Structure prediction request, 508 residues.
Amino acid sequence: MPTSTTPSDVTRMPPGPDVLRVKNPYDGSEIGSVPALDRSATEALVARLGAAQPAWADLPVADRVRWLERYRDWVLDHRVSLAETVHLESGKVRHEALAEPVIVADLINYLCRIAPSALGDRTPAPHGMLGMSKRLRVQLRPVGVVGVISPWNFPLAMAFMDAVPALLAGCAVVTKPSEETPLSLHRAVAGWEEIGAPPVLGCATGGPDVGRAVVDTVDFIQFTGSTRTGRSVAAAAAERLVPCSLELGGKDAMIVLADADLAKAARGAAWGGMSNSGQTCVGVERVYVESAVYADFVRHLVAEVGLLEQRPDGDVGSMTTAAQLEVVRAQVGDAVARGARALTGGHPTGRGLEFAPTVLVDVDHGMEVLNEETFGPVLPVVEVRDADEAVRLANASVYGLSASVWTRDTTRFRAVADRLEVGAVNHNDVMSNLLSFAIPQSGWKASGLGARFGGPEALQKFCRPRATTEPRVALSSEPNWFPYSALRSTLTHGVLKATVARGLRRIR
Ligand code: NAD
Prediction:
């Protein structure tokens, strides 16, 4: 089986019950291990981070920027070994694993550039008579300790997409990687200590219990994972009245209109549906094609998918977990049992946890594969009458993460995009919103709450605003205070009405 040796700096714990052993999806071999924390160890870690956070928050933003830039260099220096660990623990191909550390470094660059202005005090102009006498200021103060709970599909990049802005905002961060893929994040967090940075970044390794302990102790919960778990995280956050931001599942639609460049659309579908073995939240999960070009599109797509090489150094890798392989197998099985046809793949390859890239036709909305998140290399393709039917079916989902629309006509793209109930729409491309850090990545409906990225908001979401008012003129009393009198009332309300009302109402 074509895997590689374990990178030399992956952790290996001595045998014992409090250890999380991580296996390679290709051959089941153990590739490393990390401590499995319990609740009290997690609470102690969060307490330590909380104790270090005020001094970090008190640093000027420029000093925090300098630490993050030093850390970016560490990440880039360890790029190859981190990527190899991502590859081995997740089963994604090496080409895709190598992107993760670089994405982290690029995000650090972007956020370090905007942090000083995004986190600086604002002095809004006052409004109306009552505000006129005051100088207004808004400060952004970090929320405290942020819990960043993440899934297994991007073991390294996903956690840092939230940890980097939270750190820059002045928060401490406890990361909680998936129990399936904790090695690369655990190693990367150790790098923060290695550069001698203040102790405000930690890693709570373990299973769902550790996730629950994080939810129960931190000041802000940033959760990425399934919609089912997201609901319970939101309920726990509501109970404690702490803010939470949720990035959840999706069932992203691709709409191909009759004037689209079909060859490019097919390449986009193949990449959007099959990269990372389909285990990307904003991956293409279903395709709606106008009937005039349906047959042509399917022909192009089958040809594109037929070119994909499935092996660790090829285009498509392995599923990460046996449980996810079962989900994919069951959904494809359900579709085929109800009359769908697999034009490619349709089954596991028998090598490790691989599922063969699959194009499904003759599918309908009675099948799970068009309703439930598949999270596997499967593209169900549906023929639709026109754009209206495509929009109606695309919106017929509990999810609303992102979508793509394929047409040569920008006006038509915008008209269709305006009607889609999703957080992002890409024109003639897939997933490009995810790497455009200046725009928000948000899920509508059951795909999430809040957003990540989005320019300055990426940093500001980890802050609480503190507003201050200061008098412009020192008075011994204020006009709206006691004592009330008829004369004062007439004067005050007369002036107020004159400034609030418009036209003749000012004097009537
Ligand atoms: P999951 O919900 O099972 O687990 C996610 C994380 O939550 C893990 O670290 C897990 O240990 C932890 N956890 C489990 N139960 C918990 C609880 N009760 N309280 C706190 N933490 C708990 O998700 P998964 O299977 O690891 O990931 C796949 C899902 O993630 C897919 O649905 C995918 O769409 C979604 N996802 C969404 C985005 C996005 O940005 N919208 C990005 C990547 C993945």
In short: Residues 1-5 have pLDDT under 50 and may be disordered. The chain has three domains: 39-248+456-463, 253-434, 479-506. The first helix runs from residue 39 to 58.
